[in-house]
Fold:
Amino acid sequence: MKNVILLIMDGLGDRPNEIFDNKTALQYSYKPNMDFLAEHGVTGLMSPVSYGIRSGSDTSHLSILGYRPEDYYTGRGPFEAMGLGIDLKPGDIAFRANYASVVNDMVVDRRAGRIRDTNDLSKKLETEINGIKIIMKSGVEHRAALVLRGDNLSDKVSDTDPHGVNSKPLNTSPLDDNAKFTASIINKFLERSRKILNEHKINKDLISNGKLPANEILLRGAGKVPELPDFNIKYNLRAACISGTPLIRGIAKLAGFDIIDVDGMNGRIDTNYKNIINSAMESLNKYNFILINIKGADIGGHDKKPEIKKYAIEETDRALKPFKDVLNNTLIVITGDHSTPCSYGDHSGDPVPILFSTDGIINDDVKKFDELSVSHGYYKIKSDDIIPLILSYSDRSEKYGA
Amino acid sequence: MKNVILLIMDGLGDRPNEIFDNKTALQYSYKPNMDFLAEHGVTGLMSPVSYGIRSGSDTSHLSILGYRPEDYYTGRGPFEAMGLGIDLKPGDIAFRANYASVVNDMVVDRRAGRIRDTNDLSKKLETEINGIKIIMKSGVEHRAALVLRGDNLSDKVSDTDPHGVNSKPLNTSPLDDNAKFTASIINKFLERSRKILNEHKINKDLISNGKLPANEILLRGAGKVPELPDFNIKYNLRAACISGTPLIRGIAKLAGFDIIDVDGMNGRIDTNYKNIINSAMESLNKYNFILINIKGADIGGHDKKPEIKKYAIEETDRALKPFKDVLNNTLIVITGDHSTPCSYGDHSGDPVPILFSTDGIINDDVKKFDELSVSHGYYKIKSDDIIPLILSYSDRSEKYGA
Structure:
C-alpha cells in the first residue's frame, strides 16, 4: 500500500487569456515538475461536483473527500463560519451575519457603511444565554458569522435580514415546533446586542462623525454543522491536512483529519510554498494521506491577475521537486477544487486538470499538465471519482465481488 | 436491427510490463482482427462498475448486463456457489464454506490443513432437513459452498466461522425474527455434519496419519440468490451465453440466457478458442444476442504470467476472423470485465478497452485495440453504459421522447 499526497491548488483551472497569448495560466507557466508527474502517470479532466457546476471550495472539497454535498453541505452559514476560523463542532448552528445600520427603527444600510473593522464589536457580543454558548466572529468589512452551541438547537429558523433597506430589522421565527427554543435564544441575543452596540464607543464615534453606526446584526443562511463520517475510518487511512485557509482546515477537521501547522504558511500568495511541501514529505512518517490546499492560484483568478496565478503555479511547482523521488511508494495526485479563470474573476464551471502519478501504473500519452493537454488523457471524471481512484492507484481498494 | 456479439475477455486490462518493453499485454500482442474491428468502429475506455473500483467478475458482469450490483449483488455466498457450478435458483440461500479442523472442541485450523479433495465429504453431507434441501459442493482445497433451498428461508443469519483459531466453532444465530427457521436448519445440519465427518474414513485416515481432520464446516457470507429481471424481456432479445466459467454461466442463467455448450471449451487457457467463436457465429440463427466470456487473459494476470495473457489474447484474436465478415448485420463488442494486470496479480481498478464495431457507424481515429490507443477514442464510460450503447448501435433502441 502506498502513501498518498493529494495537492489541491485552489481555483487552478483557467481560460485563455490575452496576456498569456490566449493560453491558460497552466499552459503559460513554467512547471517542469508537474509536467514530469503528468508524464509519469495518468491524467484527465475533473469536473468539481458535476459538469458545469460552479462549485465553491466548500462543496468541492466535500465532494473530493467523498462527502456528497447534497448530503453534507448544510448551507453557507456553517461553511462561512468555518472560513472565519471558528472551531465548529457537529450540531452547532451557524449563520452568516451582517453588521447593519438602523436609524429610527429602520434598516438604512445593510452593510453599515462597509465598516472596516468590527472585531471589537463581535468580541463584546459573545455571551451565553439559557445554556447556549454564542460565538460571534468578524470577517471582512461588515461581514461576520454567528454560531450557537448547545443542546436542543435547530437550524429551522427564519432570516432576520430583511434583504432590503427601509424595513424594520426582523426577529427570527421558528419554522417548525422544534425550533422555538433556538428562535427565542436568537431573539434574546439580538435584543441584548442592540443595547450593547448602540452604547459602544465605536458606534458613538461613528455617529458623532456623521457616519452610520453598526448597531444591528442581520442573520441569514442558518445551517447545522454536519457530522461527517470519519475519513480515517471510512477509508482506513491516517489523514492530515496542510492548508493556510481556515475553511479547508475546518472541513478537514470535521472529517477527522489532523491539522498540520507549517512555518510561514498562510492562505495568501506570499505563503511559504517550500515549507508546505517539505512539511507534507516529513509528515509521511506519521500519516499515509496528506491533503494539501494551496490558495494562490484562486487569488489570482478572483483578482483577475494572471501574473499572480502564474506566480502561484510556478512557486508551487518549484517546491514539488521532492515528490519525484518518492513515486516508488507514494501516489501523488494534483488537481484544483474548481476553476477560477482570470478572465472571469470568479469560480466557473470549467473542469480542472488532474494527474495521478506513481510508479507502476499506466502512463497515458500526456506529457504536460494543463487543461488542453490532459483533455487527451485517460479520464473525464467528477470530483467524487477521485477517492476511489486514489484508493485503487495506492493499492488500498478492497475488491468488490470476486 | 442487428445481431449482437458481446465478447468479454476476462481480466483483459493490463499495466505496462518490463517483459513487454513496458507495454501492456494488448499493446504487445499480435491481434490484427481486434485492431481491424477497432478501426471499423468506435472505441474507448470502460470502467467496470465505476472509476477505480476493483470489480469482481460477478459484480462486473451484473453491471455490464444492466443489473446494478448495488441492487443485485447479494454477497459472495451466492456468487461463489455459482462459481462452483451449483445450479442456483432465486431465493436459494448460499454460503461460502470452509472445511476446518476441530480438536477438543476448538478450531485449530480454519483450512483443515488445506486438504486436497473434499468432494466425497461434500456429497455425503447433502441432505434434506424439515423440507429444506441442502446442497454442498467442494471447491479448491478446503473451500466449498453450501446452499439451502426451500420456503421461508432468510439470509439474515450470522457466520459460524469464528474467523480465527483457538475458538469454539460457532452455531449460527438469526439476525432477525424471520431468520429463526433458517438458523435452526443450519444448526441441525452442522450437528449432523460433525457426526458424519468425524466418522468418515477420510478423516479417520487423516488422523491416523497424524494429520488434521476436515471435521467441521465454517460458514460465512450468507446471501440470497437474487431474482434478476429477464434480460430477454427487458431488452426484447433472444440471448445466449457461451462461457467455460461456471460463475458466468450461473449469472447468465439467472438473467434468463440460454447456455450454449461448446466442444473443447473450458475456463482454462487451453480452451478451444476457435470452437467458441464458431459456435457463437452459428448460434446467430437462433439468438440475436450472444455473450461470450473467455477466461484466459485473467489467468495470465492472476498468475503474473504475461506470456499466458498474450497467448490468450492472440488465440482469441486468431479465432475472431469470422466476425469481420458479418459486420453488415452484426454489432461486435469487445471488452473485459476488469483489469488483471500481470504486474499486480489481481483485479485492479484500471479501466478496460472497449470497441463497438459494425458497418455504418462512426469510426473514431483509433486503429489499435489497446489501453493507450483507445484512450484517444470516442468514449470514457462505465460498465452500465454498455447495454444502452449496444441497443443503440444495433438499431434496437426505443426513442426516448419524440
